Amino acid sequence: ELNTGYSQPLRERSTITNHLFFRIPASADTADCYLRFVTNDRLQINANAGELGQFIDSIQHEDMLNCFCFGLMWMMMIYNLFLYFTNREKVYLFYVFYVFFSFQFISFLTGYFIYYQRFILLSAIQMTSFLPALVGIFSILFTMHFLNTRKNAPRIHKALLPLAILISCTVLLN
After folding, report:
1. What pLDDT, in 10s, does the model give residues 81-94?
2. Exposure of 122 by Cβ count < 10 A (0-12 exposed, 13-18 middle, 19+ buried)?
3. Are 140 and 164 in contact (CB under 8 A)?
4. How many angstroms separate the Cα of 142 from the Cα of each of 15, 32, 49, 135?
5. CA angle at 103 for the pair 99 and 109, rounded to the nearest 5°
6. Is the pLDDT reported for residue 73 higher than 80?
């Protein structure tokens, strides 16, 4: 029996990676393998079987693309923090929070959250709507301040306020 996934601490996994691998003993005959999945939330399974080498190339490519995207996000956060401290305009701070929580949410979706502290990982699993809600709230705040919707688009401004309140309620109800 092999247990893996978010329920297993990283150091107890057979393969320390954000992907789920199961080593199946090689045999000349056919083998029956039974998988049981347990989750408190939605579950999407993309199961493949093959040699480990087949998966390493695609994982390496995926990790390089994610590294590039995460690096760009960090650069955007640092640059906008600089702009906030030099200009003292809230719009830059809203954008920093929007990018930060987007980064966290993408890290969760791609499995990189396993490298975070365990209590952060378990909290994110229990409150699945928390990170996307924060992304939504800060994107609305950024949009309202950047476009000055109160003055330039009052109808849009009136629509965005209830939307932000509705998103905030999802966090509280989760």
Report:
1. 999 999 999 999 99
2. middle
3. yes
4. 41, 53, 44, 10
5. 140
6. yes
Token output for 104: 């966290």
Please state the pTM of the whole predicted model.
0.80
Give the three-class secondary structure for 29.
coil
At 69, the pLDDT band (50, 70, 90 cuts) reads very high
Q: What is the pLDDT of residue 2?
A: 65
| Cα gap 136→102, rounded to integer Å | 9
Res 28: pLDDT: 66
CB burial of residue 75 (10 Å; 0-12, 13-18, 19+):
exposed
Enter the tokens of residue 35.
């998988």
The gap from C-alpha 56 to its chain's centroid, in whole angstroms, comes to: 22
Q: Where are the alpha helices (DSSP H) in the chain?
A: 52-87, 90-110, 118-126, 130-146, 149-152, 154-173
